[in-house]
Amino acid sequence: MAQWQEVQNLANTHLEQVHQLYAAAALPMAVRQCLAAWIEDQDWLQATEPLSSHARMLFHSLLALLDERLGSLGLGDEDFMLKHNLRKARRDLQAAFEEYPESFANLVANLLQEERRILRLGQAGGQGEAAPAPSTPPKSDREQEIQRRLAEFHTALQEAERAFRHLEDLQDAFDFCYKVHYLPGQDQTKDPEYTRQVQSLQAKLQNLDRQRREVVAQMQQLLGRSETLRDFLQQELKAWQERQQRSCLGAPVDTRLHQLEAWFTALGEGLFQLLQLLRALGELQQKVTYERDPLQAETPLLETRLREQLTCLLQSAFVVEQQPSMPNTPKRPLVLRTASKFCTRARLLVRLHDRNHRMEAAIHIDRSAPTGLRFRKFNILTSSSKTLLAGDSPREGLICDFQYLTLKEQKISGSGKGSKGPNEGPLAVTEELHLITFTLAYAYCGLEMQLETSTLPFVIISNSNHQLSSAWASILWFNMLSPNPKDQQFFATPPPAPWPRLAEVLSWQFESVAERGLSREHLHMLAEKLLGSKPSPESVLSWSKFSKDGAAGFSFWAWLDGILGLLQEHLKKLWKDGLILGFVSRKQEKKLLKGKRTGTFLIRFSESVLGGVTFTWVEHPESGRPAFRAVVPYTTVELASLALPDIIRDYQLLAEENIPENPLLFLYPNTPRDEAFSPYYSQRQEGSLTEKKEYLNQRLIRVSSRQANESWQTEEELVVATENLETLQLQPSGLGSLQPTSPGTGTVVAGSPGTLQPHPRGPGTLQPVSPGVLQVVAGSPGAQHQGPGMLQPGSQGPETPPLVRVSPGGLEMLQAGTGAREPQLVLQLIPEGQGTLQVGPGSLGTLQVLPGGTGMLQQGGAGDRGTQQVAAGALEPQMLLQLIPEGQGMLQVGAGDLGTLQVLPGAVGTLQSAPRTTGMLQQVGAGDQGLLQPGPGAAEPLPVADDQGLLPAGLGDLGPMLQGQDMQELLQFLEQDLEPGTGTLETLEAAELMPNMDSGLGQMDGRLGGSAALLDPRDPFLPQPEDTALPATSSLFAVDADFPPLHIDASDFQ
Amino acid sequence: MCAVPAPRVRPRLRGVAEGRPRLQTREINLLSKFDVIQCIWSFCHSTVLLMGQRSGRQERSKKPEMSLSENMKAEEEDDREENKELKTKDQRLPLVFGVADLKNGAVGLYNVGQTCCLNSLLQVFLMNIHFTRILRRITVPPYASLKRNNVPYQMLLLLEKMQSGKQKAVSPIDLAMCLSKHRVNMFIQHDAAQLFLTLWNLVKRQMKDQDLVTKLSDLYTICVQEHLACQICSSEMKRNSNMLTLPLPVLDSNSHMLKTLEDCLQCFFHPEELTGHNMCFCEYCDKKTPFLQSMKLVHLPQTLTIHLKRFCFERSTNVYKLSHCLPFPQELDFNAVLTEQQSQAHGSEKAAWRYEIFAVVAHSGSTNSGHYCAYIRSLTECKWYCFNDSTVCQVSWDDVKCTYGHSDLNWGQTAYLLIYMKKHPQ
Description:
The complex is a heterodimer of chains A (1054) and B (426).
Chain A: H1 3-8, H2 12-23, H3 29-34, H4 36-41, H5 44-48, H6 54-72, H7 77-97, H8 101-130, H9 141-181, H10 192-248, H11 258-287, H12 294-317, E1 318-325, E2 335-337, E3 342-348, E4 359-365, E5 378-380, E6 385-388, E7 398-405, E8 407-409, E9 436-444, E10 447-454, E11 459-461, H13 465-481, E12 497-498, H14 499-514, H15 520-531, E13 540-541, H16 543-547, H17 556-576, H18 586-594, E14 600-605, E15 613-619, E16 627-630, H19 636-641, H20 644-650, E17 652-655, E18 666-667, E19 671-672, H21 673-677, E20 702-706, H22 715-722, E21 725-727, E22 737-738, E23 748-749, E24 764-768, E25 774-778, H23 783-786, E26 814-816, E27 825-829, E28 901-903, E29 922-924, H24 936-939, H25 955-963, H26 965-978, H27 990-993, E30 1033-1036
Parallel strand pairs in A: 2-11, 14-18, 17-20, 27-30
Antiparallel strand pairs in A: 1-3, 3-7, 4-6, 4-9, 5-8, 9-10, 12-13, 14-15, 15-16, 18-19, 20-21, 22-23, 24-25, 26-27, 28-29
Chain B: H1 20-36, H2 62-80, E1 108-109, H3 116-126, H4 129-135, H5 144-149, H6 151-164, E2 169-170, H7 173-180, H8 192-205, H9 210-220, E3 222-230, E4 236-243, E5 245-249, H10 261-269, E6 272-274, E7 280-282, E8 287-289, E9 291-299, E10 303-309, E11 311-313, E12 319-321, E13 331-333, H11 334-337, H12 347-351, E14 354-365, E15 370-377, E16 384-388, E17 391-395, H13 397-401, E18 413-422
Parallel strand pairs in B: 1-2, 5-10
Antiparallel strand pairs in B: 3-4, 3-9, 6-9, 7-8, 10-18, 11-12, 13-14, 14-15, 14-18, 15-16, 16-17
Helix pairs in contact in B: 2-8, 4-9, 6-7
């Protein structure tokens, strides 16, 4: 905005000063107003110089302009006064300054300067008043300083340009006069006129010389100021780079670049403008030069200095905006996997480019690696260069975005000297640091240079997840400690980490995974664990102690990373909301719980198990010291089937003499359990309670049993107690479906070759080995005998099953069959993301679902309302899934040890009767080989109650079942439909697959991040027509993008 | 085609501006303070030389001596032509200037022919109110020719011109012409440290008043004691020397870059063993023996000039510039930098060794072609200004910090002379 305009907008107090200024001045305000723009545009300071003809010229121009303005004024009333005033002013000015135009120039210069001063004051004051209002976040002092300097630089540049234009005028004038008047060839010295001309020419040259020096001085000054500004920007950039480094480690910091980009661009623009000005000066010098021409001496120097400035600015302005990272592990950048895609991006903060020049950007890996670096060598497989197109994305700036890059290790074909490959270095793979260098051929305004920038060092791993974890540890250590961001040999001698620094970084890990960092208490516990003492600010931890050594067989980092993984997958919310105390040493734990009520518990991470979480509760016996009990840690395997809040809700402690009870009553310090955890319980379908229930719901619970005199106060005892821990888990995994489709046939269709992981402690594994094959491996047949069978009070006859819980709602995994005439079985295995299909330890699984016709259901769980649900009106017993402990002499599933799942359709009223009509009894054979064949471990005939019909126990029994027509039909069907790679079983129509289940299949419940589908257990199957053979069906589905499409090979079934 | 002619001087003695009276009172206060702090030290050295650096590194010390003797001759020549001119109207200039003129506002100086070095130094002199207070008391030479050739008088005229007008810059052409008569030529690249010594010696030499000469010496002279101790018989030789600048090395004895100004000072005062080729003759041992050469600081003046030896000689005649980063503090306490052994002064003297920075003469460019500018913190306003010939602008300490140097920038500004001012006792 023009100065006069701004002056008029000033607040009253400051405006008053302006009025005072003009009241005393010889220049009337009317003139100032009338010729505002022109006056501001002239170089009055220049005119104040002695010997300057400029002043006179300006004065006369002003008078002329006034005349012009007078002439153009109309005859209106307002104009009349103005006309009068101006006319008077003109007269006065002429009278006063005709002889002394320099004084006039001086006067105007001073007035303008004074105006500017008042303006500054006024605007500063105005800002002070407006300060509380702004909506944008307050800028730091440094930011304001940079803004101010940029503005100043810009103004100074404009002034320099103005001075330059003036110089041009002077030079033109001189040049003209010189050519016209100076005639050296003729002897005209006697001609007074000529002498006068030459003198005047001399004066003009004098003036020109002065102006040249003036301009040069201005440029010097400008350049000096720009150095400070560049220095400021580089400091800011450095701060950004540090922020970026911390952000890579998970720190919550702002890594946006737009502000820096704007600053760098503004300064770059200014400097390039200055460069052009300098070149124009050079051209002026080409036209007119003389002895001791300041331009001749100073311009080259100035230009060298300016180029150096620009180079320095541009070099630092080329930054890696996004450090290399793989898209599927965005929180762990700088760890790359061979043959996996990754991306990285560099940006030139000076957003100036020549549209006619192709800017080539390229990337190189380990380009300037120090010689003697014996690291693996890699190639970038994808194209490593790119052209920055003009107008590519003007708003986004100049970026070199490399996506979909992949790395491949260079295989050295020749044999190395030693037995090791030539690429083997002294460092572990995860300690090798690699760099990617970006280069950019930059050209603008005649300045050409090669810009270069490097990423932070990264680690290249080949495949396993374990490597990812330790690679990340390397990245943490490097970025936390390396003083040199390019030091590829950092791990040759990794420095120890000061504890405070490490603590901060560890906390970021938790913050980035689960949005809650580590508290002081947490860090305290970790420090004690690591350093063995109270941390002091001077404590340091060595790299090997952090990532390599560990008393428990794993390093500190492996342990911590296990916990991070557990949090990430299962406990995010609980951790975020602070329900997990987490890092509590055993000593501390006792201290905390000692004074609390019986049943107060806390959740902490196991120190002996990788990625384990457990709860400890306190019991105050009537006499004696308080007892602290802890359950063996749950790992991600257990939590995959049942979330921790549900475990806590339903946790049962069984003792021989007591009815089962949940010992977990209050979350430390004293929040009632349900109050603390109810928001996290999985949903139960309360609404359906009122409906006519055809099916019984089930729920998976965790139970511990103990001997009366047992105590679990130490970890060792806990380990022993594991065997007493009874779990029944049905954990469907990756995918596949277990669907007995017709009576008498049991089939397990493993959808895909996905990996089903065995339960680590579970006695058996159910593993689909290939499509369509479900193997149940009896892991340790002997183990079953260890199962104390505590849960199976022998006294209970078949009519009263030991523990029955049928509950509606929830994510029950076992689905009761329809209430049709014929018993049905539906066994549903819920696919989890995990890919583990688990059949819990047989020794204790007591999950029985009883047909509820007759109130036979017993509920074991205390305090759980609504779980005692009898499927009303079911005439026939509906479903029996019995896992009966061996001792029972009943139908046994699982060969006790595990792995065999037997489903017994029960008849009415008889709890464990064999199916009367059809071959309802299905066995999913426990076998280690072959298809649906009971393995040797399970081969022994299972004890069968007398009145029960066929109990296929052996191999032979199963064989015929497979040949059942229905089964074959199904298989054929599956083959036809699925082979073309339809991807998932979802494409099958439910009705076709399971004619009696019209909606079940469709409603798959993506329980875990959509990676798995679950047949909705709440959806009751429709009653079957009487005349149909009712299939007992169980399905196991999973849809996971990571796995290949479902493929069933018919040959597997033959 | 033409040389730059000397324009006639038209001193512009304008009336005082509105702002002045207010300033007066403040300056009077300052004045009275300064009277109190007159240096207690007096010296009787006729010429102050830049004391030689220690053996083996004596690149610069000889030049000032040379220029001084030349100046003597020049002066004699000038005296012969003194009678040619009669009194001029210049005598109407007030002989004693009022305190109002002590303002020492920031006014630029035109470059009149590669005079950026001279301009920077003049600004450093003329912005120093301690110096101008002495300058204003000089006696005006009686004849026009004397006046033309009298450096202090021309400096005074220039100061007057700068302070009187409202121009943003004035031309120091008269002074430059005057200096050229003393062999300080225009259109020549000068070394600021050298020119400083020349200028200072010229001013001192041409002052007639002994009292003023003493004061001028007091204002600038550093006094050190050189010790040479024979390592065999422990005999010791002492010698007091006066210096105008502390010529600090920026590399240590192993040619490693020193990190801070304090390091440079420590390196400078660090005792040095003279062995091998450097052994000296010991009159007691009667042979060449190894010596320990050390330097002790005796006295520091009000205005302390530090010369960073950034220009470095290679083995050949090549001179190159060291532009690495060398930070200097805003406040410098010699007691914190030097050890007990490195000073030879009593308590009250040492208590006064607390300085704050007053000016920086910065050089940009290479040894062959370069540019000087001066950053000066106005003693009256306490604001930093950058003087780039005719362009003057207010700057901040951040701008001054930019003259620390930068290893990546060979053409950038680097501090060359640092002028520290003794702090007032609280």
